[in-house]
Design a protein that fits this description.
heterodimer; A: mainly alpha; Arc Repressor Mutant, subunit A; 2 domains; 71% helix; B: 366 residues; 17-stranded mixed sheet; 21 strands
Chain lengths: 186, 366
């Protein structure tokens, strides 16, 4: 690899590391595993940098590498053996109904890796069905069915009713605008 | 819609405060090169180039534009923190009128504050700093609206221009029906600060307020280090401290209360009664320490040799109070199916460190 390509790779990684980590955190549910995933992704990206830089969109290429690495890692027997059960992400959510949020996280975390990846691509990356299919290397129909199955599984995990109001409603009703001590100002 | 909830969940995770990165880009580079060498077996390696490339990675990553972190005590920061670290209070009074001293302080992720004055039931100064983006001037600078959630915003009505603080715009402000006057100023790009003057009628306090504001100390070391009278052990690693209250105690800041949450980036974890998350409160026990027992049934027990009182609060929340546990009064509130009960927390997860702050922990968990 030429020095110029190395420099390009370096520049790209420096600029995109943060967003890759966030995507990995959404996929994995915790930052520790997310960093392992990004580490593996960057190695692969280096190996295939020639292909990535020639792709129409390097970000899309990197995202595909990361998502496929996530699915592959979760499928391997080693990962299944060492993955701790019951671990919930050390990351935030914008709601105060903690039990509901934790229930939702647990339900999403319990999904098979491909279904979780599908939800992340559809609802976090906002990709179209066709774009999802390209990343996952499957047909658009499979993306649709995986999405439907994943959402069904989450619904079933949460019980017959949705876990509280939607994100806007939860915030609107539960948010304390000021800390408790601010009552002294009134 | 379940889709909206999933979307909000992912966004919440992505927008949260990331853990410190463990990604080693240099290692990725070296491993990548090694793999390429395997693939190109027979071709001459280029160790010198590899070393140079690693150095380039390190230099380039090191030079990547990063959000400025909290500065040291002294100069006002250029950019307001994205969130505050509850374990490192970010601001403190640097100057106070004669007879006034710092009484207490607290830090939650969206804001940090300190209270100063001559003592209880007298005049007080309350200094509050808000994280980047939490407050904004309304149209035509008629008010300062605070809260990330527009539905829950509170607005301080701006009553006039104030002398600049450290060269930055400042205003006199108040809240309707409040009677409390404020000096508000932009302490850094994206961040606003307030100084409330309580029990100080008229305008005589204006000069003092401007001077106090000009001497505020900023940065992770603005306040003496926190000292926790107990350590919480055995909880999942994703539990974090989301809010800490303290009082000055010599060379340390004695922690009187802290709140733990599995969702550290939640931006408004003020009203704990909404959550059911564990809240730990501590006080130094006196010879006749007792626990105020709210209405309702209370149960007296002995746990780990300490006398405790257990009861139910509103909703599913339970409380525990130990009037004197090794010289420290402990209260725990919790109530969530994802969280151990207060009795369980006290019995199995709380490691008490005695009444001497010199022996207390700098970190509350682990």
């Amino acid at each position: 690899m030429s020095q110029g390509r190395d420099a390009e790779y370096t520049e790209y990684v420096a600029a995109r590391l943060s967003s890759l980590r966030r995507l990995a955190a959404v996929l994995c549910g915790d930052w520790q595993r997310a960093d392992d995933l990004v580490q593996a992704t960057l190695t692969k990206l280096y190996v295939h940098w020639g292909r990535a830089r020639e792709a129409s969109h390097a970000d899309a290429y990197a995202r595909a590498v990361l998502v496929r690495e996530f699915i592959h890692e979760r499928r391997s027997g080693w990962a299944r053996r060492v993955t701790l059960r019951g671990g919930l992400p050390d990351a935030p959510a914008a709601a105060v109904d903690y039990d509901s949020v934790l229930d939702l996280r647990a339900a999403v975390a319990a999904l098979p890796s491909r279904q979780r990846a599908t939800l992340v691509l559809r609802f976090y990356c906002d990709l179209t069905v066709d774009q999802c299919a390209e990343v996952l290397g499957c047909s658009p129909g499979t993306v649709k069915s995986q999405t439907a199955r994943a959402l069904d599984a989450v619904r079933r995990s949460l019980g017959p009713a949705d876990p509280g109001p939607g994100p806007g409603g939860a915030r609107a009703t539960a948010t304390a605008p000021q800390p408790r001590r601010s009552a002294r100002h009134d | 819609m379940i889709e909206d909830q999933v979307r909000a969940l992912f966004t919440g995770i992505a927008d949260g405060e990331p853990a410190p990165s463990r990604v080693d880009t240099g290692l990725a580079h070296r491993r990548g090169r090694a793999r390429l060498r395997w693939r190109r077996a027979g071709l001459a390696g280029a160790p010198v180039l590899a070393a140079a490339a690693v150095a380039v990675v390190a230099l380039a990553v090191g030079a990547a534009p990063l959000r400025p972190g909290p500065g040291l005590v002294g100069p006002r920061p250029a950019v307001a923190p994205r969130q505050f670290n509850p374990l490192a209070p970010y601001a403190s009074f640097g100057w106070l009128p004669s007879g006034d001293s710092v009484l207490s302080g607290a830090t939650y992720r969206p804001l940090t504050w300190q209270v100063a004055g001559p003592g209880p039931a007298k005049h007080r100064w309350e200094l509050s700093l808000y994280m980047a983006g939490y407050c904004r001037l309304t149209a035509a600078a008629r008010g300062l609206a605070c809260n990330l959630d527009p539905a829950a915003q509170q607005t301080w009505r701006i009553t006039g221009a104030a002398p600049a603080v450290d060269g930055h715009r400042a205003f006199w402000a108040g809240r309707s029906g409040s009677g409390v006057n404020h000096l508000v100023w932009q302490y850094a790009k994206g961040g606003w600060a307030m100084l409330a003057a309580l029990n100080q009628p008229g305008t005589a306090w204006h000069g003092l307020a401007v001077r106090i504001a000009g001497h505020v100390r900023y940065g992770a070391h603005a306040v003496p280090p926190l000292a926790f009278p107990a350590r919480v052990t055995g909880l999942p690693a994703w539990w974090r401290v989301s809010g800490v209250s303290y009082v000055p105690d010599g060379a340390v800041s004695r922690v009187t209360q802290y709140l733990m949450t599995p969702l550290p980036g939640v931006t408004f974890p003020f009203n704990v009664s909404l959550g059911g998350l564990p809240e730990f409160q501590f006080g130094l026990a006196g010879p006749h320490s007792s626990c105020p027992v709210p209405q309702g049934k209370a149960v007296h027990k002995v746990i780990n040799g300490y006398r405790v009182i257990l009861g139910h609060a509103t909703g599913s929340r339970q409380w525990l109070c130990a009037p004197d546990a090794d010289g420290v009064q402990v209260r725990i509130l919790a109530g969530s199916r994802h969280v151990p009960s207060p009795a369980d927390l006290f019995a199995h997860h709380l490691h008490l460190l005695g009444p001497n702050p010199a022996h207390w922990a700098r970190k509350p968990s682990g």
